[in-house]
Amino acid sequence: MGDVRAHGAGLVGQTLRTTGPRRMPFDVVASDPSGVTIHLHSTDKDRLVPWQQIEAASLLGLHGKEITPLRLREAGASEAHPAYVAAILRAVDA
Q1: Into how many domains does the chain fold?
Q2: Which end of the chain has fewer beta carbons closer than 10 Å to its terminal beta carbon, N or C?
Q3: In sequence order, which residues have a C-beta less than 8 Å from that of residue 26 and are 6 or more positions away?
């Protein structure tokens, strides 16, 4: 996946969707040294997804449909934001 921070920063301005049957949309609104800020369509609120979670998930070596919130949570890569981390990694991996 290369430099996940550089690729993640390139997602700013894009609308992504979580994985799974609900495919909830969210916008990637910013990237800074602490993480990626997303705007949730469902709640109209912003949320910070820390780089630590995104990078930990990328180190699992999963690709495409292998990247699921459940796998990320089970591996301990993302407890708080696995659905958003999975969507961001899938977009970076694409």
Answers
A1: 1
A2: C
A3: 15, 16, 17, 18, 38, 39, 40, 41, 84, 87
